[in-house]
Design goal:
By secondary structure, this protein is of the alpha+beta class. It has a domain at 31-164: Hotdog Thioesterase (Thiol Ester Dehydrase, Chain A), CATH 3.10.129. Helix content is 20%, strand content 29%. The protein has a seven-stranded antiparallel sheet with strand order 1-2-3-5-6-7-4, covered by helices on one side. The chain is globular, with a radius of gyration of 17 Å. It starts with 30 loop residues before the first strand and ends with a helix.
Amino acid sequence: MTTPARVRSTLPPEHAPAPQRHPDAPEPGTVLDSHYAHCFGCGERHPTGLHMHVTVGQEVAVTGEFVVTADHQGAPGLAHGGLLTAAFDEVLGSLMWLLRTPAVTARLETDFLRPVPVGSTLHITAHASAVHGRKVFTEAIGRLGDADGEPAVRARALFVQVDIAHFTSHGRAEEIAAVRRDPSLHRTSEAFEVNP
């Protein structure tokens, strides 16, 4: 019999410090390019992806927009809950650009507050709330229509900082080789060293 894995909390320890924005982080107002052209979340070359657009905010915060199309349906005319969770994962993960550290999602909790219809735009505001060792704690809220619209979805996530070898060791060799051959597939060659 195996021992169940310990459940990681998305809530930071009580005295965990707030994260510090890296001096080389993109400036507030910068729209982040796709980190990988074929990324389901932000890649412009993914035919049915989310095509997320993420903008850098103040301190360690970003905003993102997800336009729900017919490709993103779960129930007829409504966004699939898993795809909404993926949109939050994309925006929350973009916070790592501001910390300039590669990280992976360890746990993501999503609360669905109201349906998100096809044709609507979900405006997601996210920030990193704390860092504890290799753990980065994040939060986000998604609003319908505009940045002041009705709250529809909220999420908390725990990211764990990893060495770049995590991606080069576990990623598909053909995809990694393709990025090395054609750097236009990836945000920048420097980005591949920071956030594949």
